[in-house]
Amino acid sequence: MTTLNLVLMGLPGAGKGTQAQKIVAEFHTVHISTGDIFRAAMKNGTKMGIEAKKFIDQGNLVPDSVTDGIVEDRLAEDDTNAGFMLDGYPRNLEQANALDKMTAKLNKPINAVINIHVDPEVLIERLSGRFICKNCGATYHKLYNPPKVEGTCDVCGHHEFYQRDDDKPETVKNRIEVNTKLNTPLIDFYNDKKLLYTVNGDQDIDDVYKEIQKVLRAI
């Protein structure tokens, strides 16, 4: 069986986290989320972790060279020999080119890039639908989990609700636009390399996974 070395892509709200869990459970690949490896590198005080911490502590973006170094350190570990799945990396073309070089050096080439595609308008609706009861903090979603009686909290009966700033439609829209700009060149890059598989993320979770499963079983 071919070792699966994957990159998982998708805009915020596309359901990457859910699908990542399912892929790991069935195909036993190591899930490498950049957030997790940054935290681990800083906690363990690795050379690259110390470097990253300097930028994060100042509220700055970590430069590509440091991010690439942290990812390469992680991919060099033995548990990735049986396959890995990168989530949150690469985020731009420079990182994609660096990933090519490091996977060639480690002899662990990427053999599929799964892009979970959902229409941005749908994502804005998904991500900006959350609201919270002002009195007791119960969380609702206008599409997936509305109160039983409109305008009344199921838990405490109060009628005042609010939205967190990062759930507001304009904030969500901006986040989606920024991520679309970053993702588009990457999609072209991996498409040219014949590694890209786009699945329809705007369907039931299990149906999305069936599409992913079909791709991975064929590799």
From TrEMBL:
Function: Catalyzes the reversible transfer of the terminal phosphate group between ATP and AMP. Plays an important role in cellular energy homeostasis and in adenine nucleotide metabolism.
This protein's UniProt keywords: ATP-binding, Cytoplasm, Kinase, Metal-binding, Nucleotide biosynthesis, Nucleotide-binding, Transferase, Zinc
ATP-binding found in the keyword field: yes
The protein, known as: Adenylate kinase
Class of the enzyme per the UniProt entry, highest EC level: transferase
InterPro entries: Adenyl_kin_sub (IPR006259), Adenylat/UMP-CMP_kin (IPR000850), Adenylat_kinase_CS (IPR033690), Adenylate_kinase_lid-dom (IPR007862), P-loop_NTPase (IPR027417)
Residues bound to ATP: G13, A14, G15, K16, G17, T18, R130, T139, Y140, Q203
Database matches in Pfam families: ADK, ADK_lid
This protein's pathway: Purine metabolism; AMP biosynthesis via salvage pathway; AMP from ADP: step 1/1
Entry's EC annotation: 2.7.4.3
Residue ranges, annotated region (NMP): 33-62
Leader sequence segment: none
Superkingdom of source: Bacteria
Binding site for Zn(2+): C133, C136, C153, C156
Organism: Pediococcus ethanolidurans
Localization (cell): Cytoplasm
Family statement drawn from the similarity comment of this UniProt entry: Belongs to the adenylate kinase family.
Domain notes per entry: Consists of three domains, a large central CORE domain and two small peripheral domains, NMPbind and LID, which undergo movements during catalysis. The LID domain closes over the site of phosphoryl transfer upon ATP binding. Assembling and dissambling the active center during each catalytic cycle provides an effective means to prevent ATP hydrolysis. Some bacteria have evolved a zinc-coordinating structure that stabilizes the LID domain.
Organism classification: Bacteria, Bacillati, Bacillota, Bacilli, Lactobacillales
Domain Adenylate kinase active site lid stretches: 130-166
Catalytic activities: AMP + ATP = 2 ADP
Binding-site residues for AMP, renumbered to this chain: T34, R39, N60, L61, V62, G88, Y89, P90, R91, Q95, R164, R175
One term of GO molecular function: kinase activity
Complex formation: Monomer.
